[in-house]
Known about the structure:
Layout: H1 5-11, H2 25-33, H3 47-57, E1 64-66, E2 73-75, E3 93-99, H4 104-114, E4 118-120, E5 123-125, E6 129-133, H5 139-152, E7 156-160, H6 164-174, E8 180-184, H7 189-199, E9 202-206, H8 210-222, E10 228-231, H9 237-253, E11 264-265, H10 274-286, E12 291-294, H11 299-312, E13 325-329, E14 338-342, H12 345-358, E15 362-367, H13 374-379, H14 385-395, E16 405-408, H15 416-422, E17 427-430, H16 438-442
Parallel strand pairs: 3-6, 3-12, 6-7, 7-8, 8-9, 9-10, 11-12, 14-15, 16-17
Antiparallel strand pairs: 1-2, 4-5, 13-15
Helix pairs in contact: 1-2, 5-6, 6-7, 10-11, 14-15
Amino acid sequence: xxLTGIEIFKLLPKTNxxxxxxxxxLAFAMKLAAGKAELSLCPYVSEEAKAQLEAASTPPxxxxxxxxxxxxxxxxxxxVMFRHxxxxxxxxxxxxxxxxxxxxxxxNARLERFQLEYERVGLILRPELVAIKCESxxxxxxxxxxxxxxxxxxxxxxxxxxxxxxxxxGLKACADRKPLLYAATEENAERVAGLAKESxxxxxxxxxxxxxxxxxxxxxxxxxxxxxxxxxxxxTLRKAFEDQVIIRSAPLTKQFRPLGFPTIVFxxxxxxxxxxxxxxxxxxxxxxxxxxxxxxxQGESLFxxxxxxxxxxxxxxxxxxxxxxxxxxxxxxxxxxxxxTSNFSLxxxxxxxxxxxxxxxxxxxxxxxxxxxxxxxxxxGKFVADAIGPFVKKSGIEDKVKHRKLVIPGYAAAESGGLExxxxxxxxxxxxxxGSLIPAYLKTWNP
Length: 447
């Protein structure tokens, strides 16, 4: 039986150290009781207390990790249905599908496309997984493909076959990568569970419908396998969507543990249209997949999915912000213009994008405004002369340019006089109010 918040509090160290992120041990205990925090966040809890608190501290949806090192993927562990309640913690992984019936050229091309990556807000956005499917029925051929993928990529791996012997051959080639074994079914559950336990790997459970799936996960957990990913078998958007919502809500609202695991979905099996596949995948980024398997990666569809994932799996109570500092655009030199803006990510991308489009070598100073836009930060007193001035002095921009001209956003024009007082010797120029006017403005630059 789950412990109450007060019962949990009695077992905590009661230091109120705040290292867990909560102001008091009592507040942390209440979160544990509600399934909205993990006991691992408390650095001082005793081993005896850990044993007693295990039931209360285990997330309703078990976290599962596959892969190793920097490219390891952790999914599950979520404690809420909606991100306005609490941020979603573990973003879904994207997998590209490779079959052992593909020719070498196609395999190489897909491995190359797996390397697609993008930089956004100082973060590198990229996919995580390669799903290797045995369609030939040849264990040796499958193992050879697995070895090739392992040698030529640092990806996390999904091994796909309903034949335990083929899974064993693939696992032998990449056991050190801790792959996900797909899939355990009612027919092969015992043997696939044995492989998972021997190699300490996670396992995907697949069954036709949620009732059968719950029976299968119960069988697997009784066999000692706990790192499970769920496939309800649905291959239409509507039914798969319904299943995702039920699987997410059952452990959270009903404490139904047999469905308390992350999920895997296959948009690649729901359509033959690549763009429709991307649209379907976007649905499951939001609701509520742990792994999304795509037939292929293309930049025009992968990038929007990565950005959607980034936006959903951020704290909705904290604006997405860019790191404060100097950003060099188009290889500037000592005569290049210097612009300043706030660190709201959308502002940064609009301004930096227009600066890049201008082809004019420039410096962009990004001031920390706690993720607020220029207008909002100005109104809140975070993008005003007595804040911008000290930032410019400390930024190091004076060592990079020989002129002393600073371009401020048109929306902050009222700060020009104050900045001239804060920055003696600097000429304060008022730039455009709209980002689209920046290229034309920069082309008139004269140091």
